[in-house]
Amino acid sequence: MTGSGSVRPFYRPMRPHRRNEPHRASTPLELFFDLCFVVAVAQAAGNLHHDVSDGHVGHALTSYLMVFFAIWWSWMNFTWFASAYDTDDDVYRITTLVQIAGALIIAAGVTRAFTDGDFSVITYGYVVVRLAAVVHWTRAAVGDLAHRAAARRYAIGVTVVQLGWLLRLSLPDEWGLASFVLLGLADLAVPAVAERPGMTPWHPAHITERYGLFTLIVLGEAVAAVSLAIQDGLNAGEHDLWSLAAAGAVIVFALWWLYFDRPNQAPDRMPYSLVWGYGHYLVFASIAAIGAGLGAAVDVDRGLAHISPTVAGYAVGIPVAVFLLTIWVLHVRRQQHGGVVVAFPVVALLALLAPLGPTPVYVLAALLVALVTVTVLLRGRDVGPSATVADPA
What we know:
Blueprint: H1 28-53, H2 57-85, H3 90-116, H4 120-143, H5 148-168, H6 176-194, H7 204-235, H8 242-260, H9 272-301, H10 309-335, H11 339-353, H12 360-377
Helix pairs in contact: 1-2, 1-3, 1-7, 1-9, 2-3, 2-4, 2-9, 3-4, 4-5, 5-6, 7-8, 7-9, 8-9, 8-12, 9-10, 10-11, 11-12
Region (Disordered): 1-22
Organism: Micromonospora chokoriensis
Transmembrane segments: 60-82, 94-115, 121-142, 211-230, 242-260, 281-298, 310-330, 337-355, 361-378
């Protein structure tokens, strides 16, 4: 990082940060990176909302999971790299801005992916982001002798997989899903293979902050989705949506509370660091999907949707259950014991039953409030002795 009063160079050797570096905070470039990526998140959630409301639930789910993978994986890889190697020179900034441009290309292709099944624009944007990452890793291989083997593996692995994504565009349509799964697994395998010579020096506290900030951004997108749906209703002269809006707001507030209830730090050992990092795909995707589901529930209430209230309830209930179970695995089960550990999966199960009743959104809001209440009441009693640093054996 550039010190106070110093001049930022055009290029400096890419040296690693220390894993125990004090006061390691997110930079303005990282925050700008997040802000631009949320454009793609908004596009994905908005298209999921409209597809679900139109009754294309299966197509909506498949398209959403595929699109969100491109968004999340692009964001995640930059985040972990920047934690280890952010030099803040001009070359680094320019390369990162190229990655941001790729994210905007991804966002521009989201609607086409949902409506036509055409992932070409998303693929081009994704490849731009990832090949710019190869530039980062090549610089790291040159500047960090201790982790040169890992950096080289990253650069080679990412390049090979990107060639696969480009070749996928020429495959027949019937191979689209299978090839996506195969290439997605290949992308996921690159860090697991690359880190084997020795973990790159990412900063656990910095990674935790970065993930928390992106969680806040996605929560904000969920709030915006509900707000826009309510606004459309009010503009149409429908003024009986306030209680539904309040229930939706309570759900989002409860998600925030449950994620940030206790300090959580990214584990600093393999392989659980990968589990923690990869598991947040479900955290981010479920939060954005909850916003889309709440928008669909508003459409049902307004009589504009081609789905039943039960389906709309499941559009909220399923991602709520996914969120709770993922947080239970990544945070709660590692740090706590007793009643709170039991409460999370129980409420997740009840969230899957809530849509069978007449007012699922209100029931889900009540269930989440009850879970927050349990976590508050049992806070001191159920915290384990090594809550913030213990990893599974």
